[in-house]
Amino acid sequence: MNNRALELLKQTGAIFADSHFVGTSGKHFDTYINKDALYPHTDAVSEMGKLFAEKSKDLDVDVVAAPALGGIILETWTAYHLSKLKGKQILGVYTEKDVDKNQVFTRGYDKLVAGKNVLIIEDLTQTGGSVKKVIDSVHKAGGKVSGVCVMVNKDPQITSATIGVPFSYLAILEVPSYEEADCPLCKQGIPIDTRVGHGKKYLESLKMSS
User: Fold this and answer.
1) Residue partners of 206: CB distance under 8 A and separation at least 6
2) CATH number for 128
3) Which of 30, 72, 148, 181 is the most exposed place for a label (fewest CB within 10 A)?
4) What is the pLDDT of residues 14-45, one digit of tens each?
5) Region for 107 from its dihedrals, namely left if φ exceeds 0, alpha if ψ lies in -120 to 50, beta otherwise
6) pTM here?
7) Measured between alpha carbons, how far is 197 from 205 in angstroms, rounded to an integer?
8) How far apart, in whole angstroms, are the C-alpha atoms of residue 100 and residue 110?
9) What backbone torsions phi and psi does residue 173 show, to the nearest 5 degrees?
10) Which domain holds residue 150?
């Protein structure tokens, strides 16, 4: 791991490897990135924001936006460092899930996005679904998406072509994921790891259904 973003995640104990995890999607995989372990370390988060800023410094940006909850801290630090790099004030805003699980601007943030160039950032991307929802909300608010940058891209098949706007990332860590029925970790009898992710809820659901 010579990539600085991955180094920061490793140093803060955010990467769990060689185990059996269940994600929010219900899919199973052997490596889990617990970004919540990064966030209490303000020096590391600040540096991560600086990495985002340096990666995106050539883009025309007025506002940095990210989906809640994981993206809130990152968009704030990214906007802070990007403001310094560009010598102008760049705002940081975020979207929140509505009842239909879309990512929408609340708290009047849509007015801050209207007519502005927006950089969208995200902590992790497995499918790109959350990012696309933020893109839709920026367009609905009358903003223009300058680009998308994610901390860790977990699927190399996610590109600018699949996202629909310029797409970049600080690090790539390919993590194959499996449906429960096809999971080789299950077939090998590797116990579900309940330290992070949705492993605990998954095991509880099995008990309730049995």
Assistant:
1) none
2) 3.40.50.2020
3) 181
4) 999 999 999 877 889 999 999 999 999 999 99
5) left
6) 0.90
7) 14
8) 18
9) -140, 95
10) 4-198
